């Protein structure tokens, strides 16, 4: 492998990574629904409280727990709906349905869908069939208990956290069973927070002991269209535990086999690019984590708590927290251990997190994410200055030897063996190492890829303006100026490098700027900005080193 192959590898490394991840997403194992219906619109005859699935893949009960109380059996039919309770805070606009007391819709008020649509917020949760994503909770018991099909009643249908000194809103929903057991589900919304406290209070006014457990789950439809995307980010389930840490539960995994695991603490989430929903149990509470695949690419991921016994005339409560909002790392770290890992930097997290910290610190100084990217790129170039200098010095020496290498090729013609031997003798005579530029480039590749993922995953850059026509660093340059500049800088870099002796490699290198320019035209502007700045700095450094070596050679002559 010569220096030119290493340069080519450096240019293609990020692209190969993206294509590989897109391939994994789109051409993995096909999904197989586990719930069948007997006809259009049919509803399977499933009890309201039963094992998580009726197939052999149903999760096994926890020790000492009746099989009927492990997890709710979610039916494959369309969701039912009744009265809606509307709750609006300064950051959330949500609707709760009295069927199941589920949170059916959630808009993130400070995150517009697009820059040019500032009054249309991102809808993270929705019960629209095409993009179904809802948060459900309820109780499971061998006696009557409110699950996702139960009918609750609401004291009022409108709640607003106004501009007064009130810091929270409590939204109670009530359910009364046939045997004297009543349940009050209380949602508590806080000012400036994406965390919603959920409490289920059981009052046992019956003559017998009540035993049961709570479940919390997300139901989501896989709305991916199956096309290959060059900018791939993960959408699907995630669970966290102290034992296994951050673990993806993909839709394909749910379709192949139901999750069934007892986990102390942790959390379960459904995530997507920039946003997530997460159920967070009480610290240290052991929960049974489960999943279920329904029809029409719908999936359930949730957890069931330990069983609680409530004596006649007594009451007890179950509590959890629900996070529905953006992947703000500082916020997520405070909500639950490991929740910040949903900002998924992959295997290069150890590099990407410090880079984000640096980017965020610079943003506090300059107040513009675009200029922060420029400064981060400059700092990275300074850190690798000596390594880059070694690489560019090697290239400059190779460029100096180019006329002699051309003469050798003409002398030996098609005899590759003699040509190679003559080149090695020339390198030895001139004290030039053709591999001198390889290691510096290889060392920098992980840092460049980590920076790429950091820029791609950071919600802070979403709809962040830079200058002039660039109003959103997370979307493509609307006028393709940055991709054209990137292509131009690649072309200039090629002119500064000696052409490869291999004609095939030389032609490939010539076409690279014309291949990468349209490719990068669809990349987020923030990522292309990084590449342009990096290329410009590389050109300046390489030009300076090449010019200095040529001057030294001229003086020596």
Question: How would you briefly describe this protein structure?
Answer:
It is built from twelve helices and 20 strands. The protein has 557 residues and is of the alpha+beta class.
In words, what does this structure look like?
It is a single chain. It is built from 12 helices and 20 strands. It has 557 residues and is α+β, with helices and mostly antiparallel strands. It has a 9-stranded antiparallel beta sheet with strand order 6-8-9-10-20-16-15-12-13. Strands 5, 11, 14, 17, 18 and 19 form a 6-stranded antiparallel beta sheet that branches. The radius of gyration is 30 Å and the shape is elongated. The chain starts with a helix and ends with a helix.
Shape: elongated
Put simply, the count of helices is: 12
> What is the CATH top level name of the largest domain?
Mainly Beta
Using DSSP, what is the number of strands?
Answer: 20
């Amino acid at each position: 492998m010569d220096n030119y192959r290493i340069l080519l590898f450096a240019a293609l490394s990020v692209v190969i990574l993206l294509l590989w991840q897109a391939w994994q997403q789109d051409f993995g194992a096909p999904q197989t629904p586990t719930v069948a219906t007997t006809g259009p619109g049919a509803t399977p005859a499933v009890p309201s409280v039963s094992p998580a699935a009726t197939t052999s893949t149903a999760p096994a009960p926890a020790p000492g727990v009746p099989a009927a109380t492990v997890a709710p059996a979610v039916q494959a039919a369309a969701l039912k709906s009744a009265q809606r309770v509307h709750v609006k805070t300064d950051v959330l606009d949500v609707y709760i349905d009295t069927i199941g007391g589920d949170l059916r819709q959630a808009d993130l008020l400070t995150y517009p869908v697009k820059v040019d649509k500032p009054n249309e917020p991102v809808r993270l949760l929705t019960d629209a069939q095409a993009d179904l994503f809802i948060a459900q909770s309820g109780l499971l018991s061998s006696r009557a208990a409110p699950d996702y099909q139960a009918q609750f009643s609401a004291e009022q249908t409108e709640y607003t956290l106004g501009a007064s000194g009130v810091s929270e809103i409590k939204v109670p929903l009530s359910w009364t069973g046939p045997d004297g057991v009543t349940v009050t589900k209380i949602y508590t919304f806080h000012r400036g927070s994406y965390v919603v406290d959920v409490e289920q209070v059981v009052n046992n006014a019956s003559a017998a002991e009540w035993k049961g457990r709570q479940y919390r789950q997300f139901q989501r439809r896989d709305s991916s269209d199956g096309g290959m995307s060059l900018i791939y980010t993960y959408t699907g389930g995630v669970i966290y535990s102290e034992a296994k840490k951050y673990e993806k539960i993909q839709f394909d995994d749910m379709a192949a086999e139901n999750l069934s695991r007892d986990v102390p603490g942790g959390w379960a989430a459904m995530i997507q690019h920039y946003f997530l929903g997460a159920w967070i149990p009480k610290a240290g509470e052991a929960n049974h984590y489960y999943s279920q695949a329904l029809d029409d690419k719908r999936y359930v991921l949730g957890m069931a708590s330990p069983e609680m016994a409530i004596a006649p005339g007594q009451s007890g409560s179950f509590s959890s927290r629900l996070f529905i909002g953006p992947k703000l790392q500082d916020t997520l770290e405070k909500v639950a251990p490991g929740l910040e890992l949903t900002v998924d930097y992959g295997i290069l997290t150890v590099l990407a997190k410090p880079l984000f910290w640096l980017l965020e610190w610079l943003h506090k100084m300059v107040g513009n994410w675009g200029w922060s990217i420029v400064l981060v790129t400059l700092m990275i170039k300074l850190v690798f200055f000596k390594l880059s200098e070694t690489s560019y010095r090697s290239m400059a020496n190779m460029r100096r030897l180019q006329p002699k290498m051309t003469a050798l090729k003409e002398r030996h013609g098609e005899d590759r063996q003699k040509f190679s031997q003559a080149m090695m003798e020339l390198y030895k005579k001139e004290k030039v190492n053709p591999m001198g530029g390889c290691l510096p480039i290889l060392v920098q590749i992980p840092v460049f890829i980590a920076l790429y993922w950091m820029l791609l995953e950071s919600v802070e850059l979403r709809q962040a303006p830079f200058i002039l026509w660039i109003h959103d660093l997370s979307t493509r340059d609307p006028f393709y100026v940055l991709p054209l500049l990137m292509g131009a800088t690649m072309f200039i870099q090629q002119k500064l490098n000696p052409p490869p002796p291999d004609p095939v490699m030389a032609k490939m290198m010539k076409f690279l700027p014309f291949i990468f320019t349209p490719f990068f035209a669809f990349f987020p502007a923030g990522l292309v900005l990084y590449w342009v700045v990096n290329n410009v700095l590389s050109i300046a450094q390489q030009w300076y080193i090449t010019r200095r070596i040529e001057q030294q050679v001229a003086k020596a002559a």
